[in-house]
Amino acid sequence: GGPHGFHGNAFALGYFYRYVLAGRGWNIIALNPTGSGSYGKVFAYDLRGRWGVHDLPEQLAAVDALIVEGLADPERLAVAGYSYGGFMTSYTITHCERYKAAVVGAPVTNLESFHGTSDIGMWFGPWEMQGDLATSRDVFRRLSPIHGVENVTTPTLILHGEADDRCPIGQGEEFFVGLVAAGKVPTQFVRYPGGSHLFIINGRPSHRVDFVQRVVDWVECYTT
Prior knowledge:
With about 220 residues, this protein is of the alpha/beta class. It is built from 10 helices and 4 strands. It has one domain: 3-Layer(aba) Sandwich (Rossmann fold). The chain has helices spanning about 15-25, 40-45, 55-70, 85-95, 110-115, 120-130, 135-140, 170-180, 200, 205-220; strands at about 80, 100-105, 155-160, 185-190. A 4-stranded parallel sheet has the order 1-2-3-4, with helices on both faces. α5 (about 110-115) packs antiparallel against α6.
């Protein structure tokens, strides 16, 4: 998330589905590509203005390495992410046809509408895109997955809290409607009433259990 968050060696609250899938025989890769924190300011800020463009090739290279090692089946790949990970998942499937299943959690899919609806959008978007809508609208549009939604060939599950102020639920709705309109892939949109951006960590237990189960079921349904 972030995009300047990072995966450490601690237990990842909110990502229980990883452990469930690992227990069911899946190999899980959680990456810290360019833009991640904990590697210094230069490394983290190098992603600004290049969301997806810079980090997707790194992520695909990591998957390729696992395939070479025999740790990943190229015919059974799945991709999932939340917040910036939701952005990256939606960006990935609009630019890549390698994955058999995708789970998009609380994403940013339209940087233009995010600018005016997120609780941090007015300053965060321009800072990350290195320009505001008046001067850099082309960057906001070019990096927004919504503008490639018609290219998606991966069955896609979208999960979103209804009370998400950080990545408003409209971001998930826009992408879902785009997928339905394109009519190319199975897709499902799940709304969690009262769920904030952090509902996967501190939300209602029933919602957190449901979230995990839906991720596992979707991944296994479309990769077997």
